[in-house]
Structure prediction request, 247 residues.
Amino acid sequence: MIGIYRIKNLINGKCYYGSSKHIEKRLTRHKRELKNNTHINCILQRAWDKYGENNFSFEVVEECDISVILETEQKYLNLQPDYNIGIKSSGGDNLTKNPNKNNIVKKITESVKKRYDLMTDEEKKEKHSKPMETNPNWKDGISFSYCEICNKKISQGAKRCIEHIKYERNGINNPFFGKQHSEETKNKLSEIRLGKYSGEQNIPILIDNIEYRSAGEASKKLNIPMVTIRWRVISKNKKFDNYKYKN
Prediction:
């Protein structure tokens, strides 16, 4: 029989849902593991140990075609049954709702770190230099995407190119559309544009004996990149002795 089954606690109504291509065999396995105290689901096992075998029912709740079995199971998992640890019908999730989740994650992390620490330098080098598809970080050789509007090549993970992002931010698509800065904000922005910075950026600079309030102000007035000005200030090249911070 193919479909969805349920293990239900007759005392409190809590239950566990599962799916199988052979429900009868699967339920028999559940019973055997619960009786032997070897069931992988610790929540269900604890309930079984507390309430006893006679207070649980094993039943088929819905038969379905194998092609829709996971979709059908997900419908029941969405009810958030108390005894299910995994919340996805794809299976393999014994961690999401596990009461020992933190300890399990800690043990896995420590185990991985221990194995890595025991590796020789050559093994580490080989692991991190695997070519192409043998490297777990390799993304099929694709490092770019395409704009969903104009199909232009863009960085991987992006959805639209810069031109269309800018276009969307114009007019009503701009979250600031129809709004204005306060006078206080306008003054702050004006000061920033004039080179009034705080901290290390607010250090006066002398260039050709002309004082500028900061490298930013000098950059704007002389049309020289700010990073270039700072480099010249600290340079030991005699050519730039006319660039210096004001004492």
Summary: The first strand starts at residue 3 and ends at 9.
